[in-house]
Design brief:
alpha/beta; 5-stranded mixed sheet; D-Maltodextrin-Binding Protein, domain 2; 4-stranded mixed sheet; about 300 residues; Arc Repressor Mutant, subunit A
C-alpha cells in the first residue's frame, strides 16, 4: 500500500465516479481502476460496489475511509513539520535558562519570538549555568539563556542581550537597610552569601574580583547556585549578598536591595543567549537572531 493509493481511494470515495476521480487526480481512468483493485486485493476486502447505476462505498469501504483520511492528514502534516523545521519556522526548540531570566528577559523575548515564528513549539527548562553549557555542548538543548561573564572556556557561541549591575541584598530588618546607597566596605564584616565556585564559576569569580579590588575578603557564611536561592538565604537572615540588579524585581518584603557606589570600573554582568555551533539548527539561529535584535533595541 502507498499513500498514492490512499489518495486515489479517498478521491473516488468523494466523487463515486471513476471518470471524475481520474480527472481530479490527473490520471487516466484504467490505471485508477487497477490501483483500486490492487488495494482491495491487498486488504482482502471490497471497498466499492460497482454497478451500472454507479459506484458506492461498501460498509468496509466506509470504515476504511476514516483511517485513510487520517493517514493522509498525518502524512501531509509530517511533511509540513519537516519542511518548517529545516526552514527554522517550525518544529521544537529546547531552551534552558537561568532563573533570573524569568524576571525581565524571557517575558520580553518569548512573545517576540512566538509572534514571528508561531509554528515553533518551545520546551523550557530552568537550570544552572554549568548545566546549560553542558547540555548545549552535548546536544540536549538547542538554546541557552546564561549568565555572563563565563569563568571557563566553552564551545558555545553567545551574545549578551541584557546588561546588569551588582546590587547589595540585605534582610529587611538589617542595620544597613535604611541606607539608600552602600559601599563594599559597609559589607566587609557581614556574613556573606556567596555563589558556589564549582556550579557558578562566573559569578563566583566576578564577586571575588569586586571584593579584591576594594581590598576586602568577604566572610562567606553560605553558598548557593541560583540567584533566587541566594536571595532566599538573605531573606532568611543568613547574610548579605551581591546580586544582579534584575533580582530586585522580587516582591518579598523581607529583603531589600541597595545600590553600590565606588564599584570597580568596567564591571559588566548580564544575560546572554547561547547555542553550540556544532549542533546549531535553523530554528536556533532564528531564536538567536530575535534575541540579538531585542538586545540591540534595549541598548538603543
Amino acid at each position: 500500500m502507498e499513500l498514492r493509493q490512499l489518495q486515489q481511494f479517498s478521491v473516488l470515495a468523494e466523487t463515486l465516479n471513476f471518470h471524475r476521480a481520474a480527472d481530479r487526480l490527473h490520471i487516466a481512468q484504467p490505471p485508477l481502476s487497477v490501483s483500486i483493485r490492487k488495494l482491495e486485493e491487498e486488504w482482502r476486502v471490497k471497498l466499492f460496489d460497482r454497478s451500472p447505476p454507479g459506484v458506492r462505498l461498501t460498509e468496509a469501504g466506509r470504515a476504511a475511509l476514516i483511517d485513510a483520511r487520517r493517514a493522509l492528514f498525518h502524512a501531509a502534516e509530517s511533511e509540513r513539520v519537516a519542511q518548517a523545521t529545516v526552514l527554522g519556522t517550525g518544529g521544537r526548540l529546547r531552551i534552558g535558562f537561568v532563573g533570573t531570566a524569568k524576571y525581565k528577559l524571557l517575558p520580553r523575548l518569548l512573545p517576540a519570538f512566538q509572534a514571528e515564528y508561531p509554528g515553533v513549539t518551545l520546551a523550557l527548562s530552568e537550570r544552572s549555568n554549568g548545566e546549560i553549557l553542558h547540555a548545549l555542548e552535548s546536544g540536549e538543548l538547542d538554546i541557552g539563556i546564561i549568565r555572563v561573564p563565563l569563568a571557563t572556556r566553552s564551545q558555545v557561541r553567545s551574545s549578551v542581550v541584557e546588561k546588569d549591575t551588582f546590587m547589595a541584598a540585605l534582610p529587611a530588618n538589617h542595620r544597613l537597610a535604611d541606607k539608600r546607597r552602600l559601599s563594599l566596605a559597609d559589607l566587609a564584616d557581614e556574613p556573606f552569601v556567596h555563589y558556589a565556585a564549582n556550579e557558578v564559576p562566573g559569578l563566583h569569580a566576578l564577586t571575588m574580583l569586586v571584593f579584591q579590588a576594594a581590598g576586602i575578603v568577604p566572610k562567606v557564611a553560605q553558598e548557593a547556585v541560583q540567584v533566587q536561592t541566594v536571595v532566599c538565604l538573605v531573606e532568611s537572615g543568613m547574610g548579605v549578598a551581591l546580586v544582579p540588579s534584575v533580582a530586585a524585581g522580587t516582591t518579598s518584603r523581607r529583603v531589600v536591595f541597595r545600590k553600590l557606589h565606588k564599584m570597580p570600573p568596567g564591571l559588566t554582568i548580564g544575560l546572554a543567549v547561547a547555542c553550540a555551533s556544532v549542533n546549531e539548527t535553523s530554528t536556533a539561529r532564528r531564536f538567536f537572531g530575535v534575541a540579538e535584535k531585542l538586545g540591540a533595541e534595549v541598548e538603543a
